[in-house]
Amino acid sequence: MEIKDVVNSYGIIGVIGSYKSTLDMDKKISELGVNNLVNALKMVELSKIDINTKLTDLSTSELLKVDLATKLHEDIIIIGSIYNSLIFKEREVMKKLLLKLHNDYNKKIVVIDNHVEVFFNLAKKILVLDDKEVIYETSDFYDSNLYKWVNTPRIIEFINYINKDKKILNNNTDIYELIKDIYRGVS
Amino acid sequence: MKETDVTIISVNLNKKLTMAYKDYHVIEDDFDYEDLLKYKKVIFFNVLNNLKDEELDKLFNFIRENNILFINYTNNMELVLRTSYLMIYNGNDILAEGPTLEILKNDKLIKRLGFDEPFIVDLSLLLKGYGLISEIYLDKESLKRALWK
Questions:
Q1: Which sign, positive or negative, has the C-alpha torsion B124, A94, A84, A121?
Q2: Where are the domains of chain A?
Q3: Which of A51, A127, A144, A167 has fewest C-beta within 10 Å?
C-alpha cells in the first residue's frame, strides 16, 4: 500500500523520519498571494507577524507555522519537525489545529517526526519508510518493533519497566491516567 | 554562566541566540567526533534531538572524557537532564538559570512559559503532590523503589 492510500484511509498518519521545513518556502509564499497569506497566517496563529519579515529572521516555531500556512489549501498536507521546532504548549496547539483541519475541512495529513509523542492523540497509523517504501506500520504505540528506529517515549518506557515484574499499569499515553494506575497499584 | 555542560531552552528558538557565545563553534547539522576535538567549545543547535539514547550516551561520554565544553540548545526537555546547568531564554532575555534540578523544581515557571518537564520529573512532581512520594527522582529505578518499598 502507498502512503497516499494509507492517509486517505486513516485521515492523519504519522511517519517516522526527519523533515526539512524550508524547502521552496519563499516560492510557495509568493504563489499564495498577500490576502491568502494573511488569512492562512491567522489560521496558524501567526497573525501578529509582519508578512515582509525575512524567513531567516523567524524562529524555528514561526518557520514551521509559515510552512503549514502555505499548505492549508492542499488536499494532503505534509508537515514535520513538530517536536524539534515547537515547545510543548505550541505542539499541543499545533496538534489541535491539525485535528481541526482534518475534522472540519477533511484535510488528509501526514506528520513526519522522530518523536512518537507527537503522534499521541493525533495519528491513527504510524509508518516507517525506507526510500519511500513502507517497511513497517502499526497502530499501537506499545508496539516494541517501532522503537528499533526511534526512542521509546518515556511514559511507555516507564510503564514497560514497572510492568516487567508488577503488571499493574495499563498501556497509557496520558500521565494523569498513569497516576491513577499507580495510585491503585500502591494502595 | 557555568561553562561546562549547559542546556538552553528558549520560548522562541532562534539561531541568533548563539551569537551571545562567540567563542563557541555552532553545530547545526551532521557532525563527527573529530569536530568536537577540533573546536573544544561547541554549541549543539537543535541537532541532538533525533539521536537515539545509545548514541547520546556515547556522545556525552566522549564529551566528558575529552573535557569538551558545550551548550545544547534544544526543545527536547528530556535532554535537559543530561546537563548540570539550565538556562531559559525568552528572546534575548534570560528568564532563569541555575543547576538543572533547581530550575526544574519550579514547575510553575516551566509550565507557564509553555515548556513541559522531563517525564520522570513531571511524574515525580505529580506523585509528590498526591503525597505518594516525598522527593523528586531523576530515574525510573529510584522512583520505582520509592513507590514500592
A1: positive
A2: 3-141, 153-187
A3: A167
